[in-house]
Amino acid sequence: MPSHIVHQGECLSSIAKRYGFADPMVLWTDAANKELHDRRGGDANVLYPGDVVFIPERDATAPEAGERKGVLALARETAEASSPTRKLHLILRDAQGQPLAGRAFSLEVGGETLTGTTDAAGALVREIPADAARATLDVDRYRWDLDIAHLNPIANTPDEGYSGIVERLRNLGYIPDPELEPALQAALRALRRFQEDFGLPASGHADDDTRAALEAAHRGEVAPAPREALPEGEGAARAVNVVEALPATPPLCAALVRKARKAGANAVSPGTPSVLRPARKGTCGMCARHEDCLDNDPNVLLAIAEMARRLDGDAAAFLGVIHLATGHTTSPRVRNPGSNAVGLLQLTPGTAAELGTSTEALADMCRIEQIEVAEAYFEARKQACPGADFREVRDVALAVLEPAGLDPAQPILGVSAAICRGPFFDDPGAGRVEISDDMIAYFKAHRKEATGQAIRAQDGQLLGVDEKATYYTAMRGGEEIRVTRRQRAVYKRSSGLDRDGDGFVTRDDHGVTVGDLIAGCAKEACDRARALQAALPQAYQITVPGAAGAAKKA
């Protein structure tokens, strides 16, 4: 039995037309589509991209399908005689929520122009081609561009109904212009306002009662309480404040109660509701060990997006390196027992002191507070190495994991001890001299007798050499390179970055590792942080718009 995967903008009517069925209910009532029918609450008008519609055979011969066979035959005849259509039903209201009743309209769809007048409820009902995807509606001085069949369900979807919720709130006028502010924050405020208008607890959480009310309001079955009249000219921007710039960071931390957080509570702000899915486990082996691995709280992602914008960087890169540095926990309190480093960037006590804080203070901070410290850290790295480009995942990773690598003059950060020769010392008189462990031990024991970096006998023979003055060598690409003790130490702790096994860790290897996380277990949160950053204007001045706005989705 063939099947069809639903794409954005498709509905049951357009799918039925594609496969030669004049009546889409032939598909909807087929037993093979019962699971989809039940998942969509019996509503054939709203499908989600990725839904699978089974297409019944047009010449079904099974005994129990005798009646259906007659329907299919009739469908074929109807399809040949006329082009299938579907019903477009819109309800139009002004900025105060009052119906645009008795208004003349012009609807351009499918190459035709349909005219008419809205009824007393502001409703417009017209038959349109089954496969129409776009339309333009003019009513008085208002114009809307309509996306036909683009409205998503608000239940039983991979995004937990989020896209359908935002689309309905926008259609109902609760999000006057999606470009005015970050979409996720706008959705939270819009949802609370919708709940207030319809007598529901203004939690900002899309519970079952809110979803039901939103569906009913969007179908025009219920209406909100009348709103206060607006001053002349304010139009659709009644809830918009005129501002010149976004705040530096979300003002959440001041409201947090300093007490032990309960297990399972949001680690950032226990009282902050969200229409997004809650924190979840990642999909990699490390993430599976943590209950609160990828925290998708929009306030945290917004803080990272704003930091990335101010640093002219990539929000996904910053979140990816945080994910790696914290061992897949994204916890502001995680500690490294070996170095006493703590927090989102694993700052050591010395580095914390340079930033005007301490590891103890960091461990007491929430994520958003630590993001402010992180911004100061990255800013300091950029000042020390002006060539650093935080739009590159590599440079963000290096700034945290191996800051020396921000200097392009140091392409090799780590070298395996297995391919090194030495140690050597450059003696002014004898040239390169290989140094033994005994000579290093002698220098440590007789340091006070040293002249410079070496201790010599009466005849000038080297007895001891300062270990800090020694170096190693290794061959790479047919050329000999000098290797420092630090490079050997870097390789020892970062050998996993050497994927080709050539014994060298380079500047680019750090970026590859973080890039894997951005495309893997941290992908969902990183994608959201990057999308939030894209929605942030550098600075904006809101002008009061008319009623016409973004495209509505029907």
What's the structural blueprint in terms of helices and strands?
Layout: E1 3-5, H1 12-18, H2 25-28, H3 34-39, E2 52-54, H4 66-81, E3 85-91, E4 104-109, E5 112-117, E6 123-129, E7 134-139, E8 142-147, H5 162-171, H6 183-197, H7 208-218, H8 298-310, H9 315-325, E9 335-336, E10 341-342, H10 349-354, H11 359-363, H12 367-384, H13 393-401, E11 412-415, E12 421-427, E13 431-434, H14 437-445, E14 454-456, E15 462-465, E16 471-476, E17 479-483, H15 485-493, E18 504-506, H16 507-519, H17 523-535, E19 552-553
Parallel strand pairs: 8-19
Antiparallel strand pairs: 1-2, 3-6, 4-5, 4-7, 7-8, 9-10, 11-18, 12-13, 12-16, 14-15, 16-17
Structural class: alpha+beta
CATH architecture of the largest domain: Orthogonal Bundle
Query: Approximately how much helix is present in the residues?
Result: 25-40%
- Span between N and C termini? 30 Å
Domain Peptidoglycan binding-like: 167-214
Pfam families: PG_binding_1
Organism: Sorangium cellulosum
InterPro entries: LysM, LysM_dom_sf, Peptidoglycan-bd-like, PGBD-like_sf
Describe this structure in words.
It comes from Sorangium cellulosum (Polyangium cellulosum). This is Peptidoglycan binding-like domain-containing protein. Helices cover 32% and strands 16% of the residues. A hairpin with a 2-residue loop joins strand 16 and strand 17. About 18% of the residues have low confidence. It starts with a strand and ends with a strand. It folds into five domains: 80 residues, no CATH class; 62 residues; 81 residues, no CATH class; 154 residues, Lysozyme (Orthogonal Bundle); 81 residues, no CATH class. It is built from 17 helices and 19 strands. The strands form seven sheets. A five-stranded mixed sheet has the order 5-4-7-8-19. Strands 13-12-16-17 form a four-stranded antiparallel sheet. With 554 residues, the protein is of the alpha+beta class. 36% of the residues are buried. The longest helix has 18 residues.
